[in-house]
Amino acid sequence: MLSMQDSLVILAIVLVLFGGKKLPEIASGMGKAIKGFKKEINRPDEIEILPEKDAEAKKDLEKTEHKT
Are 26 and 18 a contacting pair, CB within 8 Å? Predict the structure, then answer.
């Protein structure tokens, strides 16, 4: 677990590397990425339903891909 002192050192290093103007942009981007990841994790799996002809064509395609 990180202590308060460790967190402040990391924050200072990040501030020096990226500057004060970039920090909010980075935090916003990370927040959006985490939100999108959680959204995709909680989304139910989609079931692919194909007509019979399309299913046969897909099987043939998979067979040829495995041969190469």
Answer: yes
pLDDT in tens, 6-51: 989 998 898 888 888 888 888 899 999 999 999 988 887 777 666 6
Helix (H, G, I), strand (E, B) or coil at 2: coil
How far from the centroid of its chain's Cα atoms is residue 8's Cα?
Answer: 27
Contacts of 26 (CB under 8 A, 6+ apart): 18
Asked if 45 and 54 count as a contact pair (C-beta separation under 8 A), the reply is: no
Q: What is residue 28's predicted lDDT score, i.e. its pLDDT? A: 92
| CA–centroid distance for 64 within its chain | 31
